[in-house]
Amino acid sequence: MSQTFDVIVIGAGPGGYIAAIRAAQLGLSTACIEGNPYDDPKGEPRLGGTCLNVGCIPSKALLHSSHLFEDANHHFEDNGISVKGVSMDPAKMVARKNAIVDKMTGGIQYLFKKNKVILLKGYGAFVKQEGGLTQVQVTDKDGNASIVSAKNVIIATGSKARHLPSIAVDNVQVCDNEGALNFSTVPKKLGVIGAGVIGLELGSVWRRLGAEVTVLEAMPAFLGAADGAIAKEAKKLFEKQGLKFQLGVSIGDVKVSKKSVTVNYTTADGAEAKGEFDKLIVSVGRTPNTDNLNLEAVGVKTNERGFIEVNHDCATAVAGIWAIGDVIPGPMLAHKAEDEGVAVAERIVGQKPHIDYNCVPWVIYTSPEIAWVGQTEEALKAAGREIKSGQFPFMANGRALGMGSAEGFVKMIADAKTDEILGVHIIGAGASDLIAEAVVAMEFKAASEDIARVCHPHPSMSEVMREAALAVDKRTLNM
What we know:
By secondary structure, the protein is α/β, with parallel strands linked by helices. It folds into three domains: about 5-160 and about 285-355, FAD/NAD(P)-binding domain; about 175-285, FAD/NAD(P)-binding domain, CATH 3.50.50; about 360-470, FAD/NAD-linked reductase, C-terminal dimerisation domain (Enolase-like, domain 1), CATH 3.30.390. The protein is about 30% helix and about 25% strand. The protein has helices at about 15-25, 50-55, 55-75, 90-115, 175-180, 195-210, 230-240, 335-350, 375-380, 400-405, 430-445, 450, 465-470, and strands at about 5-10, 30-35, 120, 125-130, 135-140, 145-155, 160, 175, 190-195, 210-215, 245, 250-255, 260-265, 270-275, 280, 285-290, 320-325, 360-365, 370-375, 385-395, 410-415, 420-430. The strands form five sheets. Strands 1, 2, 3, 4, 5, 6 and 17 form a seven-stranded mixed β-sheet that branches. The chain has a five-stranded parallel β-sheet with strand order 8-15-9-10-11. The chain has a five-stranded antiparallel β-sheet with strand order 18-19-22-21-20, with helices on both faces. Strand 13 and strand 14 form a beta hairpin. Keywords: Cytoplasm, Disulfide bond, FAD, Flavoprotein, NAD, Nucleotide-binding, Oxidoreductase, Redox-active center.
C-alpha cells in the first residue's frame, strides 16, 4: 500500500520547500518531491530549485566577487589605497560560488529533518484522484517508480530558461543563465540577448571582470517594467560603466564556430548588423515547468503560455490541488513563491492569509541596485490616477558620499488627495534593503507623510527614503 500524507509538495524550490516546512509546522504530515540533481556529482537531487542552485544565490555570489574586483581596480585609489597587480581567478570565483550553493542547499535538508518533512527523491507526476486522495508517481534517478497519495498536493515545480527556437544552447559558447554562471575564463567579447534582470546582472558580472559586453534587446524601451525615471537613469549609468545596448532589434541567424558566435540582427531603424562574440548569453525570460507532470490525468488546466490556472487563493479548479510560484501567472520571483507557499499551507488548515501582490517588491542586483514596489508613474497616469511625487538623490546624502556610492535616487509616488503611497522606486546602493521600508509602509496603507515624520538614523542611506517622502510635499530638508 502506498504512503499517504496530508500534503505532498512537488518541487523543492523556494516556494516548494517553504510550503512543505510551513505545512509541517501546522501539524500536517508532509512530503516533498524533488529529482533535479543540478549537476550533483552523485546524481542526487539538489534542494532549493533554480534560485539556490543556478539563479538568485549563485548570481549574487558572482556579483559580489566581481564588485570587489572592480573596486580594487578602479575605486580603492579614491580612498587612498594603492593596489598593484590585481588579478582575478575565475575558476576560484566560481568555486566560491559553488561552495555557497552547497551550504545553502544542504541547509534545506537540515530544515526538512528539523520539521519532519519527508523528502521523496525523484520526479513527480499525477496518476489519478480516488477516494478523496490524489495519487502521485515518484520516479527516481534509476527509473524506479512508486506511488504516494495525499489529501492535498501543491505544485511548485518552478520554471526554466526560455530558449529561442533558432538558437541552440549548449551552455559552452551559447549559454542560458546556468552556463553563464560557470565560465572558466573571462570572454573578451560577450553578447547578451535580453536586457532583463538576468541579462543585466550576468552582463555586469563579466563586464566588471574585463569583458566587452553588448546587450541586444527586442523591446524598443529599456527596462519597460520599471518607472521611466529609473530606467532612464539606469541606462545612463550602465552605459557609463561600459555596457553597450542595442534596443528594438530583431535577431536573425546565429552561427557558432569553435572560437566564436556570430549574431546577425536587424537594428531598430531597419539596418542589417552583426555581432562577433566569444560567448553568447541568451536571457529572454522563463517558462513554467509544467511538462511531464501528467496534469491531464487529474484535470488540471494550463493557459496558452503553459501556466497553471488558479484562483486568487492559488487553488486549481480540481479539489485538493494547488499551485504556487513560477508555474502560475504573476511575477516570477522567489519571495513571491515563498509567500504563496506559506499562504497555501495555512489555507489548507482553514486559516485566511492574504497576499497583496501590489506589495511584492522587485529587485535587480546590478551596481547600482534597482528596486521598486507598487505602481510606476506611467501606469498610474494611464489609469487616470491623480498623483504627486517626490525624488531625492543619494548625492545629497552624507553616508552615500562617504561610501562612494552617491549615484541614483529614491522616488516616491502618492495619491494627490489622500497621500497614500502608491509606489516607491529606487536606484542606488543597497536598494534591495531600502525597499523593505516602502513595502511595510504600503502594506499598512501608509501616507508619504508617515515616512516623512518617522525618525531615521543619521548618517544612513535610509535618510534618502525620508527625504523622498518629504519631497512629495515639497519640503525636503537637505536639498
